[in-house]
Amino acid sequence: MTRFLAPGRANLIGEHTDHTDGLVLPVAIDRGVTLEADLGGDRIVLRSADADGEVDVAADGSETPTEGWGRFVAAVAAELAEAGCAPVGMHGELHSDLPQGAGLSSSAALEVVLATALADAAEFDCPPLELAALCRRAERRAVGVPSGIMDQAASILGRADHAVLLDCGTLEYRHVPLPTDHVLLVADSGVRRQLETSGYAARSEELAAALPVLDGRNPSTVGVEELDELLADLPEVPARRLRHVVTENERVRQTEAALREGRLDDLAVLFAAGHASLRDDYQVTIPELDRLVELARDGGATAARMTGGGFGGAIIALVHHDRVDAVEKTIRDGYGTAFPQHPLQIHRCRIADGVRRLDG
Fold it and tell me: 232 lies in a domain?
């Protein structure tokens, strides 16, 4: 029996920038998807301890389920086969402690753990970012979501106690140390969404409508000081989407500098500005997420903001370890009063390593 673990991810800052080849700053967390399987044969047969049903597809991904998580299994197998990996079957089980729909990339962790195990069994050499790109293609193949590469890259490149600054255009990356006296809190709103049925694709289309004003430039190369002139002749909605992306790329750069220089007060300002931009310009937050961010700050978090695609899901908060209990209590009390219909979950997360084999 072979065991692999792929972590979920929380994005510190750089939201909705990856699908325009921008800058992101995610972390891998100590929650993820574990695969235990006997590898071999010509079928992939998997059960999930956390989802209904059994998946049984051809090892080359040529059979595609019409719904459910089996779509991801078949898509990963098909992408590997198209990349030249010899098809390898498996019989096994998946376990996850990632809440689905909370913005922690449970689908990317599933893709990464499957691709890593199958490539390993086939002795198929696939460099980390090529594997991330393959898994990104698998997600689009499975559910048609025009996602970027961040989620899969974070699950692969993660390093304990570090964030990953990734340029999604050049695929250059570097690890950025995080303060070791802080805890990452993930507060899950209990509001669920699926990317293929949310406004995610619509936002991408609205942003694309603004890109011609850049004359082929990558948004990450555009200075904030250029925005007034660039946006002047755009309709309001595309202008808002582009303003978010350009300013968010700059916030990623500033956040890296603040972390390296220990300027934690600046993190509070940057995270607050990022959340406001997601609320007002990209318009992907919801009242539940806005309230969670307010409560985290009120409780004494160093910095807090929405994470993930939006339309539901979770917020993150960087909290000094002496303040964790107080911040959790403030969030629980305030959210329970404002939104008693939603089951709030708060997770204390450690920043973890990326995908790895667990049995040597």
Answer: yes
CB 305 within 8 A of CB 335: no
Catalytic residue among 18, 30, 60, 151: 151
CATH code, domain with 210:
3.30.70.890
> pTM of this prediction?
0.92
Same domain, 98 and 200: no
Count of domains observed in the chain:
2
The 10s digit of each residue's pLDDT in 48-105 is 987 777 999 999 999 989 889 999 999 999 999 999 999 999 999 999 998 766 678 8
Of 154, 177, 199, the residue nearest 24 (C-alpha): 154
Nearest to 160 by CA among 352, 305, 22, 296: 352
Cα(244)–Cα(236) distance, integer angstroms:
12
170 with 191, same domain: the answer is no
Q: Do 17 and 137 lie in a common domain?
A: yes
Helix 200-208 × helix 236-261 angle, to 10° = 100
Write the DSSP assignment of 306-354 as a string of letters: EESSSSSSEEEEEEEGGGHHHHHHHHHHHHHHH-TTS--EEEEE-B---
Q: What is the DSSP letter of 99?
A: P
Cα–Cα distance, 312 to 317 (Å, whole number): 16
At 134-183, the pLDDT tens digits run 999 999 999 887 678 999 999 999 999 999 999 999 999 999 999 999 99
Decide if 151 is catalytic. Answer: yes
pLDDT range class, residue 198, cuts 50, 70, 90: low
Q: Report the CATH number that the domain containing residue 16 is assigned in CATH.
A: 3.30.230.10
Contact 305, 275 (CB under 8 A): yes
99 and 236 in a single domain? The answer is no
Locate tokens 């289309």: which residue? 205
Distance of CA 324 to the CA centre of its chain: 23
pLDDT tens, position by position, 320-335? 999 999 999 999 999 9
Specify whether 33 is located in the same domain as 97.
Answer: yes
Domain housing 74: 2-175
Could you count the other beta carbons within 10 Å of the beta carbon of residue 95? 15
